[in-house]
Design a protein that fits this description.
It is built from ten helices and no strands. By secondary structure, the chain is an all-alpha fold. It folds into two domains: 160 residues, no CATH class; 72 residues, no CATH class. The longest helix is centred in the middle third of the chain and has 36 residues. It is globular and about 65 Å long. Keywords: Membrane, Transmembrane, Transmembrane helix. This is RiboL-PSP-HEPN domain-containing protein.
Length: 243
């Protein structure tokens, strides 16, 4: 169970609306309840949906930071599907138009190999196998489910390591677009950071941790370098890695 709780660090700290947050909370409650009741098959199904939600949030960030690459990755999709993926208002809309395993083609945009993507997507095949009547219970012991959770978290760690450049791009876009406090929606920088960075990009604690290492000196030659650095410093103070 301790290994499973790590997934919270990879899930957003805020959501577009309360229904999304309630959905993630429901999945965790379903996992925890079934795990404690030794209904490990159902616990695995709930944990799988948490994993796929994490993948959705990552693809959302990729679309935001690498839009041209994202559009190119849709080559071969029907035009209607392309339009829906391009205009999806939330990460959860991606699955309305894609087979579950197809979402992983976008993970390749952060430098993952076909072999790695195969490792990421193998859990979909496993889930499909147990989601249909088979006469077998595949996860019938604590050892089985704990081993599966460890494997899932290993792949989440692997995806997250590849996401750092994308997250830095999201942060840089935020800093450049918000260098002028006169255009802020909110008067307090902390509120502006929440509204224009943490919330729209669905940042998790792990995402925030990765952004604390952003090389702000890369923007030293920008005309608004001073305000940009000040905003970044406020971000670092407001979102320390310890939690």
């Amino acid at each position: 169970m301790d290994e499973a709780t790590r997934i919270h660090d990879y899930l957003p700290t805020s959501y577009a609306d309360k229904s999304e947050e309630a959905y993630i909370r429901f999945l965790w409650d379903a996992f925890e309840t079934n795990y404690n009741a030794e209904k490990y098959e159902f616990a695995n199904l709930a944990f799988h949906l948490l994993y796929m939600s994490y993948v959705c949030f990552s693809v959302w960030q990729i679309r935001a930071a690498r839009r041209a690459d994202f559009d190119n990755a849709m080559v071969g999709f029907q035009r209607e599907v392309e339009n829906k993926l391009a205009t999806a208002e939330t990460p959860f809309k991606f699955f309305e138009n894609l087979k579950e395993s197809a979402i992983f083609r976008f993970i390749k945009l952060v430098g993952c190999s076909n072999e790695q993507v195969g490792e990421f997507s193998k859990f979909v095949k496993q889930r499909n196998r147990i989601a249909h009547p088979s006469g077998n219970v595949f996860f019938n012991s604590k050892e089985n489910i704990d081993e599966q959770i460890e494997k899932v978290m290993t792949e989440i760690d692997n995806i997250q390591r590849h996401m750092t450049p994308v997250l830095h791009d999201c942060l840089q876009t935020f800093l450049l677009e918000n260098a002028d406090a006169e255009v802020w929606e909110y008067s307090l920088p902390e509120d502006q950071i929440d509204a224009a960075l943490i919330h729209p990009y669905y940042f998790s604690h792990k995402d925030i941790d990765a952004c604390l290492d952003f090389d702000i000196s890369a923007l030293d030659k920008h005309a608004d370098a001073g305000p940009i650095r000040e905003l970044f410093d406020i971000f670092k103070v407001g979102y320390p890695p310890d939690r």
